[in-house]
Design a protein that fits this description.
The complex is a heterodimer of chains A (367) and B (557). Chain A is mostly helical. Chain A has twelve helices and four strands; from the N terminus they run ααααββββαααααααα. Helices cover 65% and strands 3% of the residues of chain A. Classes of the chains: A mainly alpha (367), B alpha/beta (557).
Chain lengths: 367, 557
């Protein structure tokens, strides 16, 4: 590849994923709403600064809306069926006891400030995760991510390519069919109308998916080499699944010991890598322009991991910063030390600055 | 190169085999045309060579298909990828990546081609197909002709020895189609590629083909030199028909052959001036003034004026993306319109619509109305549009149910739609699923649904796409009948031969503007890329079709 040409080089997609996952884990390891809010803002800034104008990049707004929806739903559930405790009643709603067989659920009840804030916070924490994953999706072209995956996951590859290609088309064909059916005379509303548009759209999508799969197949996707195959495959895959499942739980759930989570995750990931290597042996392909891992990639991925470590260490040192059960009660100043110790404030701000660093490192894409 | 030995293929759940006892020998370096009516097994034949049938489609294969000695029974498509390249009907649906360069190297990456070889082959293919200016572009932003060339390039980088092309030009405007065909013939000449090419519009490709395979609806297949195969066939392009009419032997396959033979004919017909009946002043059924369509920054239509008269068939032509569809949708009223006015004349006795402010009553007491102001179910009774993808309108599971629903929506007597379907496409069974119909039958069903409400103005968006000669003949009959009964038809098409057969007037759009609007004879004889074969052969005579030649000859005698 001629390097002198001023061709814009997109960042290695895995770097974006490491960065985003690092931030996602960080948001789950703290109970400080300020720290989470700052990290999420940093993520939003980076996405709006660095994304290109591909369909998945433009879908980031959908993730943001989804996040807002999560917070709203969480709060609504709290008001409707949540366990009401705490003082500072904000809204004195009547409590409606449901019959015995519902298991003692009661509707409504007095809404307290602390309870409401607690519900909003736990919704926000989940929304932060969604926004981080959405950011990775917006910044890393899913098809390029796929190229960085081990060859052994080619079946997954086919489905991801088809899903990614068809999702934007679905919206387009839905609009087209609706417009076309107006030509046939005003179709009523309700289930019949929904069926009338959905059916052709889904059939269309299915046909297109088949054409795409046929095209990939006839161009040699996933050609197997003769022989190969390994007996160790099954135990390896099982270990990987178990380890990763336990490890993810350990990493994301703040009440689980971190070290155990890391250990389980490492073992699982190791087994997965070994299984994948064994399977990749059966397939061969080459890359025309392989995504390179250079300094910028190191820095971007490092920024994400750095935030994780910073948050985890601070949470261990300062109990106020640590994650906790929020159902008990909550106030805005939680997660921050008393006025005398501004250190946690500083940590939160530092995290946000590091998280936003890729915006400077990568720069704005030419549009 | 390609051998079929007693091949019979039957799709799952089909009662009849789609191909029956096929024996074929196709030599290396042969360009072989695959012709046949819609619904015959043309695509299946191509898929059998690639192994997509039965490995991908399912079905029962009897006999053996071998390509360069490899049996497709043991080799799935991916194992044949280094040997056979296939370009499907819709190239866009088969694109796996996002940019031209990525798409071109995709196949080589899968075949584990070393990077140095990839670079070399990429440059070769880019030069061969003239893709240089496109290499960094996003696939979605290319024109249809460019996309088709990229799809061709993407299989060529694998250096296949056999190339299978399924209607590569059916969606393209005449210049883009020429470009793609030129690329294909160049590949055959330069590399000695074996090509199987399925096509409906033989006028473009017959001259290049070494041999022709005819696939019948009963699954029978015959293979022979193109001249013999097309000579007595119903599927002949106009030059062949002209040759048959005049008893030329050997039958000409290209305009060049025919023109060299036609000198005496041109002299003979010189004195015959086609009698042009003076056109009586006709009522204007639809009048569009300064219609503009703007999507964001893109101007699809810039101030188009158009009038449609009773008893007239108007054909709309122009490049892909010239604004033909936008115009049809804007005229129908349900499409987007940024500025300008459209008014249709309501037949006498039709009650005025509710939005009275947009209505004008003319001096003669008839009502003019903007179709966009009407509710969709009212508008369709006056202006009906059949969109480019007719199956979008269908959603029920049998033809019978669709017909009944159509009668109900159009307030017509039960059975109206079914009766129109039967005249348009006699073979359609009412119990069939609309998705199982052939392209032509599905178009017939949608046309019948739209005609059930007896609209005066009929708008058709590329109705000839994917239709065989027989289906086009039926469509032409219907269009003429509609015009003869006092209606008007406006249709967009890339098919010059079809336009020559039915058009009274031709309107050519370019970049959202009307560049020509005139009688068909004038427009279709004035420039080579929009000329039918007969006009090219007989230039400067103003004759468009074989029928016109036949008439002129009888007049002469």
């Amino acid at each position: 590849m001629p390097d002198g040409v001023a061709r814009h080089r997109p960042l290695h997609p895995v770097a974006w994923w490491v960065w985003a996952i690092g931030l996602a884990v960080a948001t789950t390891r703290t109970g400080s709403p300020l720290a989470i809010a700052l990290i999420v803002s940093a993520v939003v800034v980076v996405v709006f600064w660095c994304r290109d104008d591909s369909p998945w990049a433009r879908a980031f707004e959908v993730y943001l809306l989804f996040g807002v929806g999560i917070v709203v739903i969480r709060v609504a559930f709290y008001v409707l069926v949540g366990v009401k405790s705490g003082d500072q009643t904000l809204l004195a709603l009547p409590r409606i006891e449901l019959p015995e067989w519902t298991g003692g659920i009661s509707l409504l009840g007095p809404v307290s400030v602390t309870g409401l804030l607690g519900a909003a916070f736990s919704g926000f924490q989940l929304a932060a995760l969604v926004v981080c994953v959405g950011a990775a999706n917006a910044l890393a072209n899913p098809k390029r991510v796929l190229r960085s995956l081990p060859v052994s996951l080619h079946q997954l590859g086919t489905s991801v390519v088809i899903a990614v290609t068809l999702a934007p088309q679905l919206m387009g064909s839905w609009l087209r069919v609706r417009r076309a059916q107006q030509l046939r005379g005003g179709r009523g509303r309700g289930a019949r109308a929904v069926l009338a548009t959905t059916l052709p759209v889904l059939q269309d999508a299915l046909d297109q998916a088949l054409v795409l799969a046929a095209s990939m197949d006839s161009r040699g996707y996933a050609r197997f080499r003769r022989g190969g195959g390994s007996r160790a495959m099954l135990p390896l895959v099982l270990t990987a699944l178990l380890g990763i499942a336990l490890g993810t739980y350990g990493l994301l759930d703040g009440t689980f010991p971190l070290s155990l989570g890391v250990a389980a995750f490492t073992i699982g990931a190791g087994a997965a890598a070994a299984a994948s290597l064994a399977a990749s042996h059966q397939l061969r392909h080459t890359r025309f322009r392989p995504d390179r891992w250079r300094t910028t990639e190191n820095l971007v991925a490092g920024a994400g991991l750095c935030v994780t470590v910073l948050v985890a260490v601070t949470a261990n040192l300062s109990p106020a910063f640590a994650p906790r059960q929020v159902t008990v009660g909550f106030s805005l100043t939680d997660g921050l030390d008393a006025a005398g110790a501004p250190s946690t404030w500083l940590v939160a701000i530092l995290c946000a600055l590091i998280a936003a660093a890729p915006a400077l490192l990568v720069g704005r894409l030419p549009r | 190169m390609i051998h079929f030995d007693h091949v019979t293929f039957c799709y799952p759940e089909a009662t009849q085999p789609v191909l029956r006892d096929v024996d074929l020998r196709i030599q290396e370096g042969e360009l072989c045309l695959v012709v046949g009516p819609t619904g015959s097994g043309k695509t299946t034949l191509l898929q059998l060579v690639d192994g997509l049938a039965p490995h991908f489609t399912g079905g029962l294969l009897q006999g053996t298909v071998t390509v360069a000695g490899r049996d497709t029974r043991e080799n799935p498509p991916r194992a044949l990828a280094d040997l056979v390249g296939i370009v499907a009907q819709d190239p866009v649906a088969g694109f796996v990546t996002d940019t031209v360069e990525e798409e071109l190297v995709y196949g080589m990456e899968q075949l584990a081609t070393p990077a140095a070889v990839m670079r070399k082959r990429l440059e070769e293919v880019i030069d061969l197909l003239g893709l240089g200016p496109l290499r960094g572009r996003a696939l979605a932003r290319l024109s249809a002709g460019e996309q088709q060339r990229v799809a061709l390039g993407a299989v060529m980088t694998n250096h296949p020895r056999v190339l299978l092309l399924d209607e590569p030009t059916s969606a393209l405007d005449p210049p883009a189609a020429e470009e793609v065909l030129a690329a294909i013939t160049r590949l055959v000449d330069d590399i000695g590629l074996t090509v199987l090419l399925a096509e409906h519009r033989l006028e473009r490709v017959a001259q290049y083909a070494d041999s022709t395979i005819q696939v019948g609806l009963d699954g029978s297949v015959s293979h022979g030199p193109t001249r013999d195969q097309l000579g007595g066939s119903l599927l002949a392009p106009p030059v062949v028909e002209l040759g048959a009419l005049l008893g030329w032997s050997p039958i000409p396959l290209s305009v060049r052959d025919a023109r060299r033979r036609a000198a005496p004919l041109r002299r003979r017909l010189q004195e015959v001036r086609p009698t042009q009946a003076p056109i009586p002043p006709r009522e204007v059924l639809l009048c569009a003034r300064e219609v503009q369509v703007q999507y964001g920054n893109v101007t699809a239509l810039a101030a188009v004026d158009l009038a449609l008269h009773a008893g007239e068939v108007v054909v709309l032509m122009g490049r892909n993306g010239a604004g033909k569809s936008s115009l049809l949708w804007a005229l129908q009223g349900s499409g987007h319109r940024s500025a300008g006015s459209v008014s249709i004349r309501l037949p006498a006795g039709v009650t005025a619509p509710r939005k009275a402010d947009r209505r004008k009553t003319r001096a003669d007491g008839l009502t003019e109305v903007d179709p966009a102001a009407l509710r969709p179910e009212r508008a369709r009774r006056h202006v009906a549009l059949v969109p480019q993808n007719p199956s979008d309108l269908l959603y029920l599971d049998t033809v019978r149910a669709e017909c009944a629903d159509s009668d109900r929506l159009a307030d017509s007597t039960p059975g109206t739609t079914a009766a129109i379907v039967q005249t348009l496409a006699p073979g359609v069974a009412l119990s069939q699923h609309p998705r199982d119909l052939s392209e032509g039958q599905r178009l017939a069903l949608v046309l019948a649904i739209q005609l059930a409400a007896a609209p005066g103005i009929l708008l058709l968006d590329e109705p000839t796409r994917g239709l065989d000669y027989e289906a086009k003949r039926r469509l032409a009959g219907l269009i003429s009948a509609h015009a003869a009964s006092g209606g008007t038809v406006l249709l967009s098409s890339h098919d010059v031969e079809f336009a020559a057969r039915i058009a009274d007037r031709v309107v050519v759009l370019a970049d959202g503007e009307v560049i020509v609007d005139g009688p068909a004879v004038d427009v279709l004889t004035s420039s080579p890329s929009f000329s039918p074969q007969v006009a090219k052969v007989l230039r400067p005579l103003r004759l468009l079709t074989v029928d016109a030649v036949r008439r002129a000859m009888t007049e002469r005698e």
